Amino acid sequence: MLSRLGALLQEAVGAREPSIDLLEAFVEHWKGITNYYIESTDENTPARKTDIPWRLKQMLDILVYEEKQQAAAGEAGPCLEYLLQHKILETLCALGKAEYPPGMRQQVLQFFSKILAQVQHPLLHYLNVHRPVQKLLRLGGTVPGSLTEKEEVQFTTVLCSKIQQDPALLTYILEGKETTGRKKAPREATASLREAASARDKDRPQSKAPDTGPCGAWASSAQLPAETQEPDGPIGESGLITSLVGLCKSKKGRVALKAQENLLLLVRVASQAAATCLVQSSPCCPAVVERLCQLYQSLPSALDPADIAAIEGISWRLPSAPSDEASFPGKEALAAFLGWFDYCDHLITEAHAVVSDALAKAVAEKLFVEILQPQLLHVSEQSVLTSTALLTVMLRQLRAPALLREAVAFLLGMDQQPAAPEDSPRTLCAHLIRHCDHLSDEISIATLRLFEELLQKPHEQIVRSLILCHLEGRAYVARGSPEPESYEDTLDLEEDPYFTDSFLDSGFQPSVKPPPAPATNPDGKTAVTEIVNSFLCLVPEEAKTSAFLEETGYDTYVHDAYGLFQECSSRVTPWGWPLAPPPLDPHEPERPFFEGPFLQVLFDRMSRILEQPYSLNLQVTSVLSRLALFPHPLIHEYLLDPYTSLAPGCRSLFSVLVRVIGDLMQRIQRVPQFPGKLLLVRRQLMGQVPGEQLDHQTFLQGVVVLEEFCKELAAIAFVKFAPHGPHLHLSKPPEGHV
């Protein structure tokens, strides 16, 4: 097409300069467009049925052809200078705004997109280009369902691509004339961008003006810094960012996805100055987070926490729940919110560090602090329940390190000092920990799920704040006490108030008699076989039922624990944890020990396992198992080593379990036909027999959970310190011992 046009022009003008004829043709086509508005009287004819689209295409072809014929690269040809000098883009923008003839805005958007994409000469630095570009951006992106959404998203695609190639363009497209009257900081933020652009413009050869009039001086003034121009709108006015965010709301999936990809392209700018400009001189962060908060606040207030926890597979590329999932009220609204949250997380992950930090802080401030925190602390149980479940599923989706850092600071605070038992809950973390022991079992379960999800995140402060800061110093270990001569000495049954003479006379005996003394490895650690047997032997034989059923053996737990421990170990490897606990100074006086509010609540809950609902017991033991998996020597010693000599008044996980076993043996005497009922309850829980209400059902379910939890702890201890190398040759041990 272009070569044929050039040949025809050559034949028509003979020896005349082809560039002059190109200019005449270009002017003729432009006059044809302007004459339409002078001569036409039909206001209803669509633009596509007039000669305007054809003339715009001819003008574009001429500009592209002229550029290819330019001898000196970088010079603006006469046609391009005519377009700039006569403010053709400004006029087209005004015609598009008027939407006359109908559909003119669509034609203008297409022309802008094509000229910016196909003309290689840098255009966006010119005032008479970036000003109409800004005006055109403000015409769309604000009303979902616009007829020009497709053309708008193509236009923004070209702009974002140009910015990625040359980040210095960002200041022209985002600000232009809008920086006048702004605070000094944003102007300073874009100074280096403009300096870079000015330096490049100095090196660019200046083109000569066409015969219609000089343009060199105008072109120079058009490239002055934007703040020298008169303002025509505030910085928060609809522009590139607002247009993109508006297009992200489109009901057309492809349009919304392309707009999201364009915004992602924009925040990936490699230039520090451009990223700073994006944060300080555009509504980027506020607009993205405002959309997130709007979607959150549109969620139904009575969402079922079980439905929230069950929804999966939501991503920003597929922001709708899988069709095979059960429908429930508010499902689409929940999927839309989680899809946009995933998009924010992806933006923060991919963006320049400056943009990433600013966006993460905006999410934390606007969503976490201003909206979620009041709901988490509300007196309404439904508000607490729903907000806790939503926060849990957000944590599950969260991947961006910057956003995780903000989420951890929001949930746990910045203070890592150990808490005292008498401290009142002043922080959000303290209130959430208290919710783990709430009068409402549903709130307790939801909050425990929140902490379990938090413990799986790759952030050291989580474990340090909740657990390690209270264990450091090993104040739970008795100073100067001799090693126990036997396993029974460690348990101190006769001194425990739960183990009365009547209880000892009731026939309680460990299911397998433990060895007379705990074996130790050369490094002084208790041998793993001793630890494993301690947990496996803890529940007496008359309270065990797993031997009567298949697929409930200890080896299943070993297999599961192995995978979970590998995952946990890879997550904490960068934190450089020690391999062994620090040695104790035998002359150091004992000091009071407090396990911390989190372990205190978990131990208190664990001590009531025989009287709590089954679902709550499962969640308590699940959190404790997550803690036990961490490969830190202090956590292993305190939670998994039964042979640790505890200081007076201290308790450990094993000592809590021993007390529960004592309570169990006393209660067994009051349950008629205990073995048969216990086996029936286990089969009910496994779905092998229909569920029916039994006497002492909560107690019997607690016994089943207790047996399984002891096997799970034994498996975790085994995979953490396998006797035949690091987690190799895991074979099935005899039921009840290793």
From TrEMBL:
Record domain FHF complex subunit HOOK-interacting protein C-terminal: where: 595-687
Entries under Pfam families matching the protein: DUF5917, KELAA, RAI16-like
Signal peptide stretch: none
Coiled-coil zones: none
Domain of life: Eukaryota
UniProt similarity note: Belongs to the FHIP family.
Name of this protein: FHF complex subunit HOOK-interacting protein C-terminal domain-containing protein
